[in-house]
């Protein structure tokens, strides 16, 4: 275990390196930080931190830089999530409040998150299986064609065309709409299939073919395998890596093109109340070994709808970035709850 003085030295090294992207020397630490000890003591502390694997010396006669372990200790013990200012909170709220539908919410969120963190932003669309049924609408389009609309608690809208075996009776459509909403409203989509099981049998035999077609279409919508959608923005922020494109930036760009990778990175963030931070080699993909991922879920306090987060270099401003990710997730949660 490191004593408080060595932890203060590590905190100072991380903060300086994040600010300057230059190795930090003992003289710099003494000049910039009120550590209350002599340069010789700081040098001894730095030697101990290096021996423990928290900092490293990239070049002979150079200062020190944090390792993945050093950043991890900083995030876990030494930093506090930065609270956004009232002006920043107001800006986030006003930017997101004008969204007209779920797609607009996601587009605005990914742009906002990329801008305020200056990292690559990733936002997962709310998944159907985690949502609840808000409303089912059945609309007659032609005498033999119906439009089925499923609206979820996350604001997601699924539309399907249903062909009728015969001409549609408007009274049947009205009755069907009413019974479907009675059976499904408020139900979680992953559990709604059970509520649909007996709906067909409640109609007259002559109406059951159309009702069965509607029920089958709803079941298909509930289990849609194409629902794992994400939006990515701010890839230009990777230029902050510097000039070493081939070694650092190019592999990251290629990994970001694989949505399966991004979904796995976000997948561990399942609780809207907590932040998940993966640093450097903690990431499951070697291409992302020079990056950190900060993610959280959004939704209600008791249930997550989906996840959002950022990918950026390990030498990021963790307190500010963590604060921004948390704040944006909370605003998105509130907007979806109020929509």
Description of the structure:
By secondary structure, the chain is α+β, with helices and mostly antiparallel strands. It has 12 helices and 10 strands. The relative contact order is 0.13.
List the helices and strands and how they pair.
Layout: H1 4-20, H2 26-32, H3 39-51, E1 55-56, E2 65-66, H4 68-78, H5 86-97, H6 102-117, E3 120-124, E4 133-142, E5 145-152, E6 157-163, H7 170-184, H8 189-196, H9 208-222, E7 230-233, H10 245-256, H11 259-267, E8 276-279, E9 291-299, E10 304-313, H12 318-338
Antiparallel strand pairs: 1-2, 3-7, 3-10, 4-5, 5-6, 8-9, 9-10
- pLDDT below 50 for ≥5 consecutive residues: which ranges? none
Which percent band covers the strand fraction? 15-25%
Please summarize the sheet with the most strands.
5 strands, antiparallel
Globally, the shape reads elongated
Oligomer description: single chain
Helix/strand-derived class?
alpha+beta
């Amino acid at each position: 275990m490191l004593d408080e003085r060595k932890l203060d030295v590590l905190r100072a090294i991380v903060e300086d390196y994040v600010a300057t992207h230059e190795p930090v020397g003992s003289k710099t630490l003494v000049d910039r930080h009120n550590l209350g000890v002599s340069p010789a003591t700081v040098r001894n502390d730095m030697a101990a931190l290096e021996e423990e694997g928290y900092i490293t010396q990239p070049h002979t006669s150079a200062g020190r830089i944090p390792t993945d372990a050093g950043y991890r200790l900083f995030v876990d013990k030494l930093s506090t999530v930065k609270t956004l200012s009232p002006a920043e909170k107001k800006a986030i709220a006003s930017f997101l409040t004008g969204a007209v539908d779920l797609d607009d919410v996601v587009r605005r969120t990914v742009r906002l998150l990329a801008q305020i963190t200056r990292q690559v932003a990733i936002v997962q669309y709310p998944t159907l299986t985690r949502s609840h049924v808000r409303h089912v609408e059945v609309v007659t389009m032609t005498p033999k064609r119906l439009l089925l609309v499923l609206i979820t608690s996350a604001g997601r809208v699924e539309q399907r065309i249903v062909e009728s075996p015969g001409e549609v009776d408007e009274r049947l459509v009205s009755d069907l709409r009413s019974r479907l909403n009675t059976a499904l409203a408020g139900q979680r989509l992953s559990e709604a299939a059970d509520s649909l099981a007996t709906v067909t049998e409640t109609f007259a035999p002559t109406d059951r073919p159309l009702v069965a077609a509607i029920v089958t279409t709803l079941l298909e919508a509930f289990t849609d395998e194409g629902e794992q959608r994400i939006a990515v923005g701010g890839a230009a922020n990777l230029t902050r890596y510097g000039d070493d494109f081939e070694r650092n930036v190019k592999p990251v760009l290629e990994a970001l093109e694989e949505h399966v990778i991004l979904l796995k990175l976000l997948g561990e963030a399942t609780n809207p109340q907590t932040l998940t931070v993966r640093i450097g080699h903690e990431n499951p993909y070697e291409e992302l070994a020079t990056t950190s991922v900060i993610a959280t879920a959004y939704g209600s306090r008791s249930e997550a709808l989906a996840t959002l987060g950022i990918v950026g270099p390990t030498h990021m401003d963790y307190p500010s970035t963590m604060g921004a990710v948390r704040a944006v997730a909370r605003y998105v949660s509130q907007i979806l709850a109020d929509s």
